[in-house]
Amino acid sequence: MLAESVDHIPEPRACPGGCRYEPKFDGFRAVALVDGNGGVHLSSRRRTRFNEAFPEIVAAVFAQLPPGTVVDGEIVRWGADGRLDFGALQRRHVAGRRRLELARTEPCHYVVFDVLEADGADLRPRPLRERRAVLEGLLGDAGPSARVVASPQTADVEEARIWFDALARQGIEGLVVKSPDAPYLEGRRGWWKVKRRTTAEGIVGGVTGTRQAPETLILGRFDAAGRLRVVARTTPLPPPARARLGEVLHPAGPGHPWPAELPAGFAGGLYGSHPPIRYVRTEPDTVVEVSVDAALENGRWRHAARYVRLRSELGAADCPAFGAPP
Questions:
Q1: Residue that is last in its domain, among 195, 226, 243
Q2: Is the pTM of this model over 0.70?
């Protein structure tokens, strides 16, 4: 089941029976199936097998959930700074023989937010309130050291608003909002998601399209050593912004620090998930303001930023440093 984006937290009356609110974790969406013999099958919603990448989650699911159970949730990794570490999840896919070592040194958790089968019975047609009761029966007694836990859920919109603000510091992206009366509609958008967004500045170091009519912007910030580091890529620009930026962007000089092509993960998306980004380098002397969410990885915003406006009164030296908060 999928979620549709909204720009505000829905009031309880927006859902039949009152809304239910859950934190939106920044991780790998995963379905865990425990077959009748107790075998565990862990996979993405696109059926990519996760068993080898996350053996500690497979072992925990085996230990905590009985045969005939299917659950839906998010694999997450908490970093040493208390924030969600999406990069640690990505490393599992390229770790090869080091996966077992990483399972010990960078263990992950599985946050479960729904149960689709229990004791072999299909629960998807049943309302969320009933499925939630089953989930709490399965995982409600999980101790603080458990690797598989039930996602927090509240019917109190004021508590949800506190979560929305307070949990952003831990990399929680926002909230998922659900109706307690709704069944689980596989592959359909029956939930809402609302992400916490803020504004930030970035230096335009390149564009897709042409410099005179840019389609998206590649943004950077300078690190402590004075190197321009990629921090974000924007969503497609509206026509007025394309025209305005085309007037102020300058051709890159010979000393531009970025390569002719950028790996996909340098400007959003999974590393190696699609071909390198072909773009046009520009002189890094133009600053723009963008709207970004809470999903950070190694000083970069993982999700595309939304262009807000040109900051012509700012120079590149006025932009916050690489790794600084928005």
A1: 195
A2: yes
